[in-house]
Amino acid sequence: DVKVTQSSRYLVKRTGEKVFLECVQDMDHENMFWYRQDPGLGLRLIYFSYDVKMKEKGDIPEGYSVSREKKERFSLILESASTNQTSMYLCASIPDTRGAEQYFGPGTRLTVT
Amino acid sequence: GQSLEQPSEVTAVEGAIVQINCTYQTSGFYGLSWYQQHDGGAPTFLSYNALDGLEETGRFSSFLSRSDSYGYLLLQELQMKDSASYFCAGITSGYSTLTFGKGTMLLVSP
Questions:
Q1: How far apart are CA A89 and CA A72, in angstroms?
Q2: Among A2, A21, A5, which residue's Cα sits nearest to residue A109?
Q3: A34 near B CB under 8 A
Q4: Chain A residue with minimal CA distance to B36?
Q5: What is the DSSP string of B29-95?
Q6: DSSP one-letter code for B24
Q7: Is B43 in contact with A104 (Cβ distance < 8 A)?
Q8: Which helix (H) or strand (E) holds B108?
Q9: Looking at residues B69-90, what average pLDDT do you find?
Q10: Fewer CB near the terminus (10 Å): N or C of chain A?
């Protein structure tokens, strides 16, 4: 089975802190994605990566950055957390661009106070 | 830009059939996927339509009409465990990025 893991299930941070969310997949997938999910808004793409050290902005990249130093690991960084970044963050991966099925991690519920 | 519209909530009884519709407006569209998400869980893939027509996977079927910018998910023989949120999602780039609808909450009652 494909496994996508995220470093924390729940996280509480203070406004202005730098926050790192980690995602690891164990199936040698090429593409990885970060989404945030908010009630009534569905899932929205923040950033994605199609190869090591390669990254592309999604629909809502403002206030976020990402890092992919190794193929299996994709990190989401909140440079200076704000209360409007309180959300559920979901990581996903896909074998390559020919595939349609994205495999999601369990999510990190981040609260910024 | 891209947008996908789906009903916010649908209710049905066990054993029934339910259809969840999805209409989309998008420039550059590779296909339509459907995901299921139980409360507190991660989204899981259900189906994908790259071409017009019906795709069947067990009790679930999905349909796409590109000319109508429309698709639907059909769930048959509903079970209580089918109570969940269902998202349609358009593949909108060659990198397999997804643009999601806002989700439809399906409530199945006895």
A1: 18
A2: A21
A3: no
A4: A104
A5: --EEEEEEE-TTS--EEEEEESSSEEEEETTEEEEEETTTTEEEEEE-S--GGG-EEEEEEEE-STT
A6: E
A7: yes
A8: strand B104-109
A9: 97
A10: N
